[in-house]
Every structure is written in C-alpha cells, then in structure tokens.
Write a structure and sequence with these properties.
Elements lengths: L14 H22 L4 H10 L17 H12 L3 H17 L4 H8 L7 E14 L2 E11 L7 E8 L6 E8 L4 E3 L13 E11 L3 E3 H6 L14 H4 L2 H22 L6 H30 L4 H29 L10 H12 L10 H10 L2
Parallel strand pairs: 1-3
Antiparallel strand pairs: 1-2, 2-6, 3-4, 4-7, 5-6
Helix pairs in contact: 1-2, 1-3, 3-4, 3-8, 4-8, 8-9, 8-10, 8-11, 9-10, 10-11, 10-12
Amino acid sequence: MSAGTDPASKPDTGLVPVAEKVRLLAAEHAAAADRDRRLAPEVVGALREAGFARHFVAAGLGGSQGSFTELSRAVQIVGEACASTAWCASLAALSSRFAAHLPAEGHQEIWGESADTFVVTGQPPMGKASVVDGGHRLSGRWTYVSGADFAEWALLCGVVAGDGEPQARFFALPRKSFTVLETWDSVGMKATSSHSVVVDDVFVPQHLSYDRTDMLTGRNSWSDVASHNVPFQAVGGLTFIVPAIGAAQGALNACVTALTGKKLSTSAGIDLVRASAQIESARLLVEQNTAVLDDRAFTPELMARNERNAAYSADTLVEAVGALVRAAGTSGLSEKGALQRFWRDVVGAASHVALRFETASARTYPAALLGT
C-alpha cells in the first residue's frame, strides 16, 4: 500500500462512534476535572468501556487490534470536550502498544483476565536496575507519568549496569509494586494525573521486561500484529498532538459560541478564519502520519516527515488558540468559560518534548531532505 491509501479503508473496530458518547460525558465533567485536577471515575470508566485501553491489544487476548487512523479520529472527538480525557485515552492505547513488546508470558499476565487493563508509561530511563536470578531489581522515580491515578500497570524504563555498555530496558510492574506521588501542577492539561511514579527495589521477572531497542526499532519478537511492529520514530509525537487537535477544535467551538449574536470586528473575523484553517491543516497533517503508520510505509523520509508534521502542528495550534482567545475578547478569558481551558490545554500539550522541533524533526528531516 502507499502512504496515500484512503484511511476509511482501514478496519473499523467501532471506536469512533463510541468516542462520541465519551465526549458527551467528558463535557459534563470537564470543568470539575480542571478544578479538581483529576478525571471523574465515571469518565475513566467510560474510557475503559469504549475500548481505548484495548485498542492495540491483540485480538487473541480480547483486544481490538485497531488502527492508528481510527484511534486518532476517536481521540480528537473526545478532545473537543476535554483535552485531559483525550490525552489519557491516547496514552492508554499507545502504552498498551509499547507493552506488547514484552514476552508472551507478560502479555498473559497483563491482559489474560482483561484486555481493558490500563497501562501507563515512563519512557525516559530514569530508573536503575540490576540483574538477579530470574530477572531484575528496579528502583527509580519517573516524572510526568500520565494516567498514574488510575493505572493498573506501569511500563517504566531503567538502565541496567553491567560489565559492558549500560543497557536501557522497559519493566512492567503491577500497581502494588509502585507508589504514585501527586506532583503534577501544570496550568494546562490539569486532569491528566501526570504524576511521579516511585519504585523501591522491586523484583521484576524476566517475562515482564524487554530491551528498549526493540521499541525504538519496532522489532517485536513476540507479536506479528502490525501495530506492534512500528518504529518509534514513525509514531513521533502522534500520541500527544492528536488530543491537542481535538482541544483546538473545542476552542474554536467555544469561540464561535462566545461571538454568536455579537457584532464581529474585521480583526476578530480574520483571527477566526485563520485559526479554523490552522486547526484543519493540523488535522490533515496528522492524517498523513496515521496513513504512514497503517500502511507501514516506514521509509526514512516519511518517518522524518511524521516527526515534522507533529512538531509543526503543535506550533500552529498554539498560534490558533491564541488567536481565538484574542477574537473572543475579554469574555474568552472568563474562568467559567471553556475557551480559556482549551487555550491552556493546547499550550500545555504543545510543550511536550516530543512536539518540539529541536528534539524531533530538526534532528532527522534535514538529513532526509538532503539525503545524508
């Protein structure tokens, strides 16, 4: 297949229509979630029931074995109501995809009883591990682990010291093996529960660990499911830009509501039109990315383009929501209104390291363009 294959041709698991129900529930709880800095239990339950956590889990384990295109569309729908809910939905799906690199016995331990298990990920190698009989012992503290409040398993990266070069590995731990410290205090994406996870000298058996290189290269020795064999670079910042697109659309909707019935100035009209085009362009760029992933078009050029698209979209969305706040005027900054919340959420999402030009596309896209 080419990277231009129609996304509508991808297998449909039914996640998109169910996401509309999650959007409606998330909208009811969005203001409270922002105030309380956590998702309501009803919303977490709705994410589970909708199938976000099982989206990339193998069908043989009761999972949906879905596509990146379908997940992206569903997350954007949820993001129109609550960016934090969409962020957790996206991370729940992608974290399960990371966990699929574990040995088969690990798959059974995590998903044997339910494909809807919530897995969270600490990607930076912030822990230290030592080799022991049957596995490793792990200690460390991982910051910004989104969804930590309701996580049932955590997939955490640590460095294993040995006689040779240190090796980075991922370790899967059940909830009883780690502690959550409520350290998340960002003014945006408040309800993502992106807290710190602490592990203190915990034994991790061999079947709950794998070499980080497997995730980076997309090499999976234990699963032939297409979505489990995707290079990390190809995914790029997709996990984080998709909730931001939904939130930006939510900001546009809130701005239109605020301006309805008012006399529209020329400058406000220009801001509104430009912002709507910027949001739509970000959505189209992300559709390019998901087509690459679902069509398995993992050329260096297309993978670098995926990184570029995500970083560029983040910058564009920040500009767009700023213009929407300007267009709405003073009313757009009302704490009782949704627009200022979406504005904060988009800015917060865009600050993620995976969406920064200097840490993503700037490293790879020039080389792809120049053929070096």
